[in-house]
Specification:
- This protein has 222 residues and is α/β, with parallel strands linked by helices.
- The chain folds into two domains: 37 residues, no CATH class; 137 residues, Rossmann fold, CATH 3.40.50.2300.
- Strands 6-5-7-8-9 form a five-stranded parallel sheet, with helices on both faces. Strands 1-2 form a two-stranded antiparallel sheet. A two-stranded antiparallel ribbon has the order 3-4.
């Protein structure tokens, strides 16, 4: 079951077996920590127990972009755990990124196709996205994941740190990062320093948004 926090609109996926039927229930949003109530879910009428539920949100539905929620590898993580999705076209680069994120304490998900990446991002708010500009395409200008990121609303986008791995730009090129709607650019020549560069970029990002987030929390009573 997928619901949205009524306060900050974060998308939350709850395993079907944990959703109580025929009665309302409450939960705390993992992002803003505010509590809200979800209306009662009607139980299905008696029928064939082996039949599959109908509709786009049915468990086991196909993997089209309009299908049900993908398997959530992070549903049992402790609160506050950091998650990252790795969208890398080059295995040699992926290995070094994977190692750096493991050392930094991230729980990672690796995808091999833009279609799978977009489905995961629709149902889970990742803290970090590492995207190869050639992921799923030969033309960096036609990178579907990058286009999706650029169209996110600021309410969702500001919680996500996006790193673009690009041969075309220099590491730390802030103008090109802004132009491509990402937070940080890393050139493959500097991939061996990925962990250090990422740490510095995250620190600058946190400092930039610190005052904004404090005022946002005050205004929303968080």
């Amino acid at each position: 079951m997928k619901i949205n926090c009524v306060h900050c609109q974060k998308a939350i996926v709850i395993p079907d077996e944990k959703v109580p039927l025929d009665k309302a229930f409450s939960l705390n949003c993992p992002r803003c920590s505010r509590r809200f109530t979800v209306d009662a879910i009607k139980s299905d009428p008696p029928g064939d127990p082996n039949s599959r539920p109908a509709g786009p949100d049915a468990a086991g539905s196909d993997d089209s972009m309009d299908g049900g929620a993908p398997v959530n590898p992070f549903q049992f993580l402790e609160e506050g755990a950091k998650t990252a999705i790795l969208c890398m076209a080059r295995e040699d680069l992926l290995a070094q990124v994977r190692a750096a994120l493991a050392e930094a304490g991230y729980h990672t998900l690796e995808t091999t196709a833009a279609r799978d990446t977009l489905r995961q991002m629709r149902f889970h708010d990742f803290d970090l996205v590492v995207l190869d500009e050639l992921f799923g395409t030969r033309d960096p200008e036609m990178n579907h994941v990058l286009k999706y990121v650029s169209q996110l609303t600021m309410d969702s986008r500001r919680w996500m740190f996006v790193i673009l791995v690009s041969d075309r730009f220099m590491t730390g090129d802030n103008m090109q990062a802004y132009h491509n709607s990402v937070n940080l650019i890393i050139n493959p020549q500097d991939i061996h320093q990925f962990g250090m560069i990422m740490k510095r970029g995250l620190g600058e990002h946190e400092a930039f948004y610190r005052v904004f987030n404090q005022e946002y929390e005050k205004l929303n009573g968080i």
